[in-house]
Amino acid sequence: MNSIFQIPSFIIIFIFSFIIISQCQIETDWAKKDHTNNWAVLVDTSRFWFNYRHIANVLSIYRSVKRLGIPDSQIILMIADDMPCNPRNPRPATVFNNANQHINVYGDDVEVDYRGYEVTVENFVRLLTGRLPPGTPRSKQLLTDEGSNILIYLTGHGGDGFLKFQDSEEIGSQEMADALEQMWQKQRYNEIFFMLDTCQAASMYERFYSPNILAVGSSLVGEDSLSHHVDPAIGVYIIDRYTYYALAFLESVDADSKRNMAEFLKVCPKRDCISTVGVRKDLFKRNPKDVPITDFFGSVRPVEVIEDVVIEPISFISKNISVEETPKIKKYRYVPPLVNFDQFIQ
Amino acid sequence: MKGLEQKNHENRNSPWIKCIYGRLALLCLSAAAIRYWLIFFSKYQTTIADHLEISTPLNSWKRVKEGLYLYSIGINPYDGDMLHEIPTSLFFYQYITEKLGLSTGVIFIISDIATAIILFLATRHYMFLIYVEREVNKDHYAKETDEYLYTNMDLGKAPLYVAATFLFNPYTIFNCVGFATTVFYNCFLSMFLFMLLSRKAYMSSLFLSICTSISFYSIILTVPMWLQFHKQFKGKLRAILSVIFFVMNFAVLLFIGHRLDNTNAFFENVYGFILSVPDLKPNIGLFWYFFTEMFDHFRELFIFSFQINATILYLIPLALKFRNDVFLLITALLYILTIFKSYPCVGDVGLVISLLPCFKHLFNYSQQQFLIFVIYLVTFCLGPIVWHLWIYSNSANANFYFGVTLAFAVAQIFLVTDILFVYIKREFCLHFGKKRKIGQKDAILVLE
Amino acid sequence: MHYAFILLLFTFIEICISEEDVFTEELLIKPLNADNVYTHFHFTTKWNVPDSGFSSHSRIFPRILGEIIERYNVQELHIGLTNGLWRYEKWGYPVVSASPGGEIWTWFKPDTKDVDKNWKELTNSLSGLLCASFNFIDSTNTISPEFSFRPQGIIDNSEKVNSSYLKYSSLPREIVCTENLTPWKKLLPCNAKTGLGSLLNSGYIHNTRYHSLGLHLRRICTDKYCSHTGLELQQTISLVYDSKTLGTRNWSLIKFFGQGILNSCDLAESSTIYIDNKMNSSNPFRLTLKPDEVITSIRGGTVSEFAKYNVGKTIFSVGVDYLTQKEVTINQLPVLYAHQYLSGYGKENGGLVLKITNNHWSELDVVVLQNIPWYLQLYLHTLKITVGDKMLKPIKLKFKPGKLRTRYHHLEILLRIPAKSVATVSLNFDYTFLKWQEYPPDANHGFYIGSAIISCYLPLARDFVGLPQDGSMIRDSFNASRSGYLVQIRTETLIVTLPTPDFSMPYNVICLACTVVALAFGPLHNITTKRFILKVKDDRTLLDKIKAKLGINLKKKED
Asked: Where does the chain cross the membrane (chain B) (predicted)?
């Protein structure tokens, strides 16, 4: 009997000591990192088959952040058109970002939160600022708080100071900046990494004035962002240069990688991109060198272990019983599957 | 005054005047024949009826048929938004189509011809008024101004010209052949004119209330009506009484409509529809493209300003300026309505054009006759062509048709402003002569 | 001691509940003709839960659905997400019919206070749940059909069917892809990892001629006297494979789905595959695996034979090898089928034509439901129902006219179609001109009209594979002869091109129209507020005038 009781006590001591040690570690980690959760807002703003590459762009990033640990519930994916099941797609339910067709970025497990006509400037701004109509499902809300690090990735067709949505409307750089400021004032983020792959991308982040934003754009004002290559089987350009190289970089990152944002910002030098990658660091308080890439692209978060948890199964039982106690004597019936015509014939 | 009437009577008995009725009958018969042929023998009736210049959502016969059908199978026609006629009209149509046993075409022809005859009679009254005015004021006119005055011949012929213009201008012909219910509206409107000019206060207020219940815009004609009876009765009370009559009649008509409909859905579907312009199907007016392309948050502002522009903006200044010539005032107001109302159609244009021969004496001095005529002609031909190109052959777009309607509106604006301008110029000349000299120096006439 | 108690409790609860919800999975494979094979997955979850609500925990039943239907007071819920068109003439009838695009209809419980509000919120939740655009459904594109839909499950004996608690809406434009399949699969107890669900690989599913996801939730009786109720969830996937895309006529599970079944789902009470042997007579084939059982089913006078396989723990695949070359077989047309198309040309007015064919030797009663968007302005007086040259009088006509921007047209026609004839229902409409901001970004792609639904209670079960009303599983449909068999035929969706304005014109149009208004205002203002006066004529030329003016200016400067 004695030995039987001793084993659990040993185990308990072991667990306790483990908890104490690990907590110390966490505490120190905690001090360094002030974000508690990671979110990603990934937006493709263009429609039509010839913009296949934009959807490939956004799905590539989606795949990377999901691989690095951000769960689907914390990724808001906005895709303005359907490429995978488009009748023009020779291989249904796939989107490739490489002519060799070895990575299906669409994958077998994908959840698109805003699609088709839902991708509008209004919805995008509402999503960021949290001013959604009542009844919006959770999967369509950005439920961030002051401890959230957000990755915002936008791709589409842009110009000097605007980004087109679906070829019919556009968001201006000032609107974008104001939306982010509203987020800051509402304590909806801790830090934002803002990433754009459009023409004249730098013009979009020039007007930002809210703190803690690190922005990167695929091209400077006056420059075009170019696409990378064509897949002859699909027949259109399948990915943009900047995203292609950013992705190549991200493929080398895994959840406990030590690579930092400074390395990421150097991705795609002019000889590869043809355009100049623009970076805006002045709003960002930390040195990108000290920021691990998983701060934005992954979801590595400190865990706090709580000891004194009491499990109370009593309510569970009572509920179960209450169900069994309420059988009602009611009669039910099936309805004839179709109306009887004779009642209408005189 | 008596002497004048006798003189006029003599005029009427002159041989030319005697055969005027014969001519009118001939005109009516030939006009009826044209319409009859177009409706019953040519294959163009449905094409014409479907044309958007002729049938707007407010006056299309197809929608009346839909309303009657829905009513006949027990569905409230005002539940949907196909019907924008008042319930009273709907029952009127039901009566004339089902109870009278006449074919629809015949009814339309009869009422169009009737309109022409009533207009003829109405303008005769007007001509008589002018004649009286001329005779009374003869001594006040400046010298050498005879050319500005009507000749007796003109006075006699003008009503016939009015009838002829109404019967033979293509706008009214198409309006009638296309079974636009504007035909009935025109009929009531001409009745109003007739009653007004023959100085029957109650009857004119009755017909005006009918017109107003059909097309809400006619409400602004209460002002000229009031002016007319104010002048006539030399007392405010009786003049106001005519307006009160109007309001009462209108209320009764609405109440009948409400009783027939049992719901108040028709208010929204008739007056709400006219005022808030939800159906943006193109027509010859200015509203459709303007409100198609309007930014949503400015929509209300512009709807208000456009409706005010069409109704009361010009009402008071024009009424003050032309208070002495009520018929001219009515013509001007009808013209402005035709240009600026939310769902105008060629039937409205046809009616106002046919009133123009009354102002024949002004034509010689108008400056833009040729331009206006050419634009009328061009838009008349080009409208259907660009419409076809846009809608059927996909080789033009909405802007082409919009351009045509703009040009048409410009032509009508030129016409109405031209006439008013010439009118006040003539007034000036009648009183101050046509000599343009101050002392020995040459002078010019300017508006200041 | 505590822990042991809890453990004991859990096992106890487990036992209790496991009796309460039952999950079965079935796959029906039916060669439709020489080229096409119909595969229908049918996952059924039955949960004995009282009508009053379910605060208890379910074991298998997806909790999220339970929460949704309880929150919005849903009695019955049917969702279809379909890509492709079911070809009734060639393929007979499906187990569950669905119209192209998204389709959803719901019966709310009779004690629901604000049905419209619940409906809006329900569709919003479902759009989040299934990643579909159901959030575009609101009162403007919803109808409440009176005759076409009846509750498929049970209702309280004391209540009458009241169609105001029914909401139906369709999204013909909806595209169905992996993003819908993923959340759909997550509702399965085994989450597509084991069991029949493991066959659902997106790449293979979307490579078919027709694929349709279905989710049908209703209340059923759980005892003989129907005094206890339960909740039944049917999750279905229908696929039609084409041998031309597969490359061969011989098929197998591996060819269809890329893999066989790796492992059975432990939570399933049974995992069964049925293969319809009917085509064996015209195009003989050999099953690659000997069936566990051969079921002969006589239903409504039609005899059919099914090979049944029970899926076990081992890797499983079954297929068919054809024994002869492809033979052209005469396709026996089904009893009732229908087509819908547009008539007319241009963008001003057009017509909608529906052709219903009755192949039966006696007359058939059908209910036609048409759900027509408000951007077509219908003229009901142009409704013509003809059989050959003769007019056919509808037995009953229900029409709720649509309203611009607020309501769809709802048309239901009860027809008795004579034997061996084609009934043509035609209707004319005008196209509407919308405001420029109401057009979608791809305005010239066109606007969709949902499919018409033709419901009929067929007297015979030829080509019929649907489930009886009291059945939940495919196995319930064997030998299930009833007085009639409900088919709901969904026709093609249509696409119309509305006339468009020039989207780049707003400023120009506003300027031009206002200029015309000003053109009237100017002269009228002059005429009414000014009067004529004579002024001494200025004989100087224009140049003189300018000089004079400049001279004045110069003088001023000198000062």
From this structure: 20-38, 100-122, 173-196, 202-227, 239-258, 270-289, 301-320, 326-358, 370-392, 398-424
